[in-house]
Design brief:
By secondary structure, the chain is an alpha+beta fold. It has a domain at 14-52. It has one helix and three strands; from the N terminus they run βββα. The chain has one helix spanning 43-52, and strands at residues 14-18, 27-31, 37-41. The chain starts with 13 loop residues before the first strand and ends in a 16-residue tail after the last helix. It binds zinc ion. Zinc ion is lined by residues 32, 34, 36, 58, 60-61. The site of zinc ion (ZN) has 6 residues, from loops.
């Protein structure tokens, strides 16, 4: 019997922010459609990450070809 491919549960492509409650440190997880994962911790970093990423757009695979 072959080993089935494992899918990470609870993480879907996109930007997920949690810890926005008062007194908590916000944490943002960005899972790119290419599989790249990035985490930002702290409100400034979370805001920067949220401003930088475009959900559904992968900046990694297109790094070589800039489209102005
Ligand atoms: Zn990517």
């Amino acid at each position: 019997m072959k080993t089935p491919s494992i899918r990470v549960q609870g993480l879907r492509p996109g930007l997920q922010v949690r810890g926005l409650d008062r007194g908590m440190t916000p944490v943002a997880d960005w899972l790119c459609s290419c599989g790249h994962h990035e985490r930002a911790t702290g409100r400034p970093d979370v805001q920067q990450l949220a401003a930088r990423v475009e959900v559904g757009t992968c900046p990694h695979l297109a790094a070589g070809s800039r489209a102005a």
